[in-house]
Amino acid sequence: xxxxxxxxxxxxxxxxxxxxxxxxxxxxxxxxxxxxxxxxxxxxxxxxxxxxxxxxxxxxxxxxxxxxxxxxxxxxxxxxxxxxxxxxxxxxxxxxxxxxxxxxxxxxxxxxxxxxxxxxxxxxxxxxxxxxxxxxxxxxxxxxxxxxxxxxxxxxxxxxxxxxxxxxxxxxxxxxxxxxxxxxxxxxxxxxxxxxxxxxxxxxxxxxxxxxxxxxxxxxxxxxxxxxxxxxxxxxxxxxxxxxxxxxxxxxxxxxxxxxxxxxxxxxxxxxxxxxxxxxxxxxxxxxxxxxxxxxxxxxxxxxxxxxxxxxxxxxxxxxxxxxxxxxxxxxxxxxxxxxxxxxxxxxxxxxxxxxxxxxxxxxxxxxxxxxxxxxxxxxxxxxxxxxxxxxxxxxxxxxxxxxxxxxxxxxxxxxxxxxxxxxxxxxxxxxxxxxxxxxxxxxxxxxxxxxxxxxxxxxxxxxxxxxxxxxxxxxxxxxxxxxxxxxxxxxxxxxxxxxxxxxxxxxxxxxxxxxxxxxxxxxxxxxxxxxxxxxxxxxxxxxxxxxxxxxxxxxxxxxxxxxxxxxxxxxxxxxxxxxxxxxxxxxxxxxxxxxxxxxxxxxxxxxxxxxxxxxxxxxxxxxxxxxxxxxxxxxxxxxxxxxxxxxxxxxxxxxxxxxxxxxxxxxxxxxxxxxxxxxxxxxxxxxxxxxxxxxxxxxxxxxxxxxxxxxxxxxxxxxxxxxxxxxxxxxxxxxxxxxxxxxxxxxxxxxxxxxxxxxxxxxxxxxxxxxxxxxxxxxxxxxxxxxxxxxxxxxxxxxxxxxxxxxxxxxxxxxxxxxxxxxxxxxxxxxxxxxxxxxxxxxxxxxxxxxxxxxx
Length: 857
What we know:
A three-stranded mixed sheet has the order 3-4-5. A two-stranded antiparallel sheet has the order 1-2. The chain is globular and about 105 Å long. A hairpin with a 6-residue loop joins strand 1 and strand 2 (16-17). The chain is 46% helix and 2% strand. Among the domains are: 238-279 and 306-488, no CATH class; 493-666, no CATH class; 704-857, no CATH class. Residues 34-43, 82-163, 168-199, 202-234, 237-241, 261-302 and 314-328 have low confidence and may be disordered. With 857 residues, the protein is mostly helical. Residues 50-79 form the Zn(2)-C6 fungal-type domain. Pfam families: Fungal_trans, Zn_clus.
C-alpha cells in the first residue's frame, strides 16, 4: 500500500502519477522536447503534509522539511507525522482521531520505505507495556504520552485576577506518582501560573480526568469531537485490564467446586429432584481477595482508541476447569440444560474473534455455574429482573439464548467477586453485539419481547458497570430500545386488553388465559421499567429523558401477588380472594398523576411500588423541564414573560405534587431515596455545582460562582440540604450491599450538594464561628429545629458520622464540607465489604475522597 495517493513523481516537472506506466509515458514526452526550447513551467502539486505554521496561515508549504518559509523566519517547522495513507487516516474507523507529533520529535525521512505497507497497531495491547518508550508505541498510544512542550493546549485559564474570585483550597491528594523518567521529561518552565483555586481544585479534577502516570496530558482536550458524556467529574473507567490474570484463574479454579457467593434463596414452590440436583449444599467461605495483587483502579473519562473494542473482553469468557457446582434451591421450573448452554455458547462464539474461540469452547463455564448465576440473578435483593421477567414460567428450552445469557451476566456482576464480574461483563459485550446482528438479519425481532428484555438487561449492566466505555455505549443504545418499544405499541393502551379469571374457568381455558395475562403483564412491566431506567440514566448522566410521561397511557401493572403466582390455579385463587372494588378502566400513569390517591389503594389491581416508581419518573421529567427553563431564563426578563412569576409558580406546583406523593406512595426505602433526591434537584441546580467544581474549566466556574453564592444565602439552599440529608438517611436504611447502581449515584450527588454549600459558605463567611452544639440533624426526622434552620438559618445543621478507630458515633457540621463528604463515604463503605464493593461504588468513593481532601483548609 502506497503512502501517497500519487507516489510516482516526474523528476523534470514534479508532476505526480498514480501508476508507473503513466509516469513512463509522461517522461517520454519530455525526451521529445526541443532542448533549445524554454524549460517547462513547473506546476507544483499539493504537498503531502504542510507544516503547522503554513497550515495555520493557509500558505503553500514544501515537501522538504524544514520548509523555506520557516527557515527564513527562524521558527520551528512543526508538522503532523503521517502514520499511514491519507485516506486511511481520515476514514478508517480504527483511527478516529488524527494524531499530532510534538515538535521535539523530528521525523526521520526514509524514502526507501514509502512503498512498504503500514502495520496497524494490534487491538490487544498488554497493560504492562504502557511504560515503553514513545517511539516504540503504536500511533494512538503515542497520543496518550504527555506533550509538555505544548502549553497552549491546556484548557485551564491562565489569566490573572478575575472579578469572580473563587475560594482557594488546599490540595493533598494521594495518587500514583509518575516514574523518574516522566519526571525528567517534565518541563516546569513551560507551565504558566494559575490562580489559587485553579492551582489546587482544578489540578485535582484534571488528574481525575487523565490516565494514570500522565499528569500533564492536556493535549487530549483537542481530540474530543463533541460534548463529553457523562459530565467530566463523573467520568471514569475502572479495572482497565479486563483480562483474566493468574490471580483470577486461581480463584476461578475453585469456583466450580465451591460457591463463591451465598445462593441460598427462598424457593417459590418448585421442589428439587434428586435426579437433577443434589438435595443439599454446603459451601466453604471464600478467602478474602488480596487486592494488592490486582491492578489499581484508575479514573479518567473514556477516550476511544483503536485498541478499544468489544472483543477485548472475550478472554474472560472461559474458566479453567469444567467441574460442577451444586445448588439446593430453585426459583424456575427447570434448570439450564446442556442444550441451553450450547445455544448460549454458540451465540457468544458468533461475536468472538477467531483466536478467542478455542479457549472459549474448551473452558466455557459449566452448566452448574451458569445455572447458579441464573438463579441468583432472579432472586438477589439487588436485582430488578424478577419484577419484569416472569420467573415461574421461564423455561430455558423455550427462551432465546440472548435472554438466558443476559440474566446470567446480570447475576455475575451482582456477585461480590471481581473475577466472576469479569465473566459477566464479557458476556454483556457479546450480548450487545449478538442482538444487533440478530435484529439486522431478521427485522421482525424488533417487536420481540425477549430481544427487548435482553437489550434492557445488557443496557443496565453497562450503565452501572463503572466503566466509561460501557456507560457511553449504554447511553447511546438506549435510544434504539426506546424506539423499538414505542413503535411496538408498548406505551399505548390500545394494545392491551382486560384479562380476568372467572369462577367457571378451569383446565386449559384457565391455563391459556393465565399465559396470555403473563405475556401482556410482561409487556407492561417492561415498558414501565424502561421508563424507570430512563429516569435513572437521565439523573445520573445529566441528559434529557427520552420518554415523555404524557405518552404512557398503558394500564398500570397489577399486584406483585398476582405476578409471582407460580400456577394458573394460584393466580385465579388470588383474584377470587380480592374484596376490593374493581376498576372499570385500569388506571394509567397519567391517571395517577391526576389522582395520587390511586397509589394509596391496597388491592391487587395496581402494583403500588411500580406505580410509585412511574410517578417519580414523571416528576423527574417535570423537574428537568423546570431546571432547563430556569437555566435559560434566570438572567433575563422579557416583555412577554415574567420569569420570576413563572418559575415561582412552577416550583410551587412541583413541590406540592411531590409532597402529596410522599403521603400517598408505598413505604419503600428506594422509593423514599429517589423522592428525596428529586426534591433536592428541585431546590438546586446540580449542573451549576458541577460547573463550579471545574468540569468545564475555570472560566465556567467563575461564571456560575456568583449565582451559587446568592443561592447559599436563600431558604432554597437550606431546603436542598435538608433533602440531601434525607437521601443519606434513606441510604443508611438500605440493606447490606444495596447502595449500588442508582442508589450510589444518589449518595454521591447528595455529598456534592453538601460539598458545594460548605465550600461557598466558608469562603463568603470566613469569620463564621462554628458551634459544636447541633440544633438541626439533616439526616433525622423533621422537627422544629429543622424548620428554624431552614426558614431563617439560625442554629447549626449537621449529619451523623462515624469517626475514629474503631468508629464511633459523631457529627459532621455542614460548614465543614470535608467531614460531611467523609460521612457519606463511610456510609457507602459500611454497606459493602472491604474490597468487594462494585466498581461503580469504588469509583464514586475515589471521587468523593478527592473532593474531601480538596476541601480541607
